[in-house]
Design a protein that fits this description.
Elements (H helix, E strand, L loop, with lengths): L4 E2 L4 E4 L7 E5 L3 E10 L8 E6 L5 E7 L5 H15 L4 E10 L2 E8 L2 E8 L1 H4 E5 L2 E5 L5 E4 L7 H8 L3
Length: about 160
């Protein structure tokens, strides 16, 4: 099976009233009823190469870009991607302590203060670019430090414990 690329002009996206799922029509061809939208390259190309999948996760096509989608379709895709890939950005680290074999983080994000736990730092903290970290918590959450060097001195001191 080969990858099938489609352009924004070939797609119409809507959400039926009362539904949580998107419907995606590939114009004059087929409609995906409980559609999923996933990024092929979530970090390097977040608005390009979007995998359009059915309810079972079978890839139907790759949407080359969101640029050129009608306003409603683009808004729905962006909402869906934001929901799926929401990753709070850590603005400062208030506390970083080892408790019962897990690191307890108390941080400030763009959405306020929160806390989470990380088990096995080496398996759940990833430097995805110089100074940019992606952190997976034990409950499946994702957090990001976009610029380690931009954090305040206390935050950087706390991170030194891990690095």
């Amino acid at each position: 099976m080969s990858l099938r690329y489609i352009e924004p002009s070939q797609v119409r996206i809507w959400r039926p009233e009362g539904s949580v799922h998107l419907r995606i029509e590939i114009v004059d061809e087929q409609t995906i009823l409980a559609a999923k939208v996933k990024r092929a390259f979530p970090l390097s190309e977040p608005a390009r190469f979007l995998s359009l999948q059915d309810a079972l996760g079978k890839e139907i096509a790759i949407l080359t870009t969101v640029d050129g989608l009608d306003e409603q379709s683009r808004k729905l895709v962006e909402e869906e991607l934001d929901r799926r890939y929401f990753t709070p950005s850590i603005l400062s680290i208030e506390e970083l302590t080892l408790e019962a074999g897990m690191w307890k983080w108390v941080v400030h994000t763009q959405r306020g203060e929160t806390q989470f736990y990380v088990r096995n730092w080496r398996d759940n903290g990833f430097e995805i670019a110089p100074g940019r970290w992606l952190i997976h918590s034990v409950d499946g959450g994702r957090f990001e430090i976009r610029h380690l060097e931009a954090l305040n001195a206390k935050s950087q001191r706390l991170m030194d414990q891990l690095l």
